[in-house]
Amino acid sequence: MEKEYDFTKGERGKFYKKDGKINLPVYLEEENLKYVEKIAKEKNLDLNTIVNKLIKENINIAQMLN
C-alpha cells in the first residue's frame, strides 16, 4: 500500500444506488444444510427456494399463534 492516495479527481457517490439491494450470505449449520440439500435434491429445486419456503412456512405458523 502507498503511504498516501490522491483522491482529488475522485467522484463522490459514483457507484451509490439509492434503491440498491444487498444480498447477505446466510450460513447454515451442517446438520441443517444436509437436510435442506436432501429436500432440494428430492424436489429438484435449488437451496434458496427450499430455505425460503421453510422460512415462509415458519412465519405463517408464528403468525397463526399470535
Describe this structure in words.
The protein has 66 residues and is mostly helical. It has a domain at 30-65. The chain is built from two helices and no strands. The N and C termini lie far apart (55 Å).
What's the overall average pLDDT, rounded? 94
Overall spatial form? elongated
Largest sheet: none
Written as H for each helix and E for each strand, in order along the chain, the element string is HH
Strand fraction equals under 5%
Q: From the alpha-carbon coordinates, what is the Rg to the nearest angstrom?
A: 21 Å
Task: Report how far apart the termini are.
Answer: 55 Å
Question: Secondary-structure map with pairings?
Answer:
Blueprint: H1 30-43, H2 47-65
Helix pairs in contact: 1-2
How would you sum up this structure in a few lines?
This protein is mostly helical and 66 residues long.
Task: Write a concise keyword list for the protein shown above.
66 residues; mainly alpha; 50% helix; elongated
